[in-house]
Design brief:
Layout: H1 2-33, H2 41-71, H3 80-93, H4 101-105, H5 114-126, H6 134-147, E1 163-165, E2 174-175, E3 187-188
Antiparallel strand pairs: 1-2, 1-3
């Protein structure tokens, strides 16, 4: 019974992430395909807002899913990291990764933009939680909201780069010195 409840909770988290991902992709496709006239400015603005909020909430759901997986000492599902990287890459490409979510929604989220939500997801993987107790995993997750604001995610390598991401791979961040030859990073942490 407990295993069924745990599996159901994981599936629900996956479905929530899928719903937000679908909204983000649909609104992005409409923004790319549709030509907007001067009179449909409000429709375009609504689609942009939907894309921003759906991307942010999809990353939050992926973070919560990873947190649940860490609590159960299980592995990420296939495609989980690839989706997260693609969401962030699209946000950077179309320059809405730093848009303040709190300003759009009129609420106070601990994380203010897509970059911070992505940074929190990365932090959860970097913590290497397979070697610590569940209470410590929970404490790290709670601290990750504050620490995510301190992480710098850059498009090029710097002297202070500790981790790198190849957004074409379904793989978490890799320590900067340990990547293989077929690894082409474009996100530097």
């Amino acid at each position: 019974r407990n295993e069924h409840i745990i599996e159901l909770a994981m599936l629900l988290r996956c479905y929530f992430a899928s719903i937000y991902l679908n909204i983000a992709q649909t609104s992005h496709e409409q923004l790319q395909k549709q030509k907007f006239s001067l009179f449909s400015f409000k429709q375009k603005k609504n689609l942009q807002t939907a894309r921003i909020l759906a991307t942010f909430h999809a990353l939050q759901q992926l973070t919560n899913l990873l947190y649940q997986q860490h609590m159960l000492y299980s592995e990420p599902v296939k495609g989980q990291w690839l989706i997260a990287h693609q969401l962030y890459e699209t946000a950077v490409q179309y320059k809405y990764h730093l848009t303040n979510i709190n300003h759009i929604q009129g609420v106070q989220h601990p994380l203010a933009n897509i970059t911070q939500a992505y940074a929190q997801l990365i932090l959860l993987d970097i913590f290497n939680t397979n070697q610590i107790r569940q209470s410590e995993i929970q404490a790290l997750f709670q601290c990750s909201f504050d620490w995510a604001r301190m992480i710098q995610i850059l498009p090029k390598d710097t002297a202070s780069t500790k981790y790198v991401v190849d957004p074409t791979k379904d793989h978490p961040p890799v320590y900067n010195k340990k990547q293989s030859s077929n690894f082409n990073p474009s996100i530097f942490i």
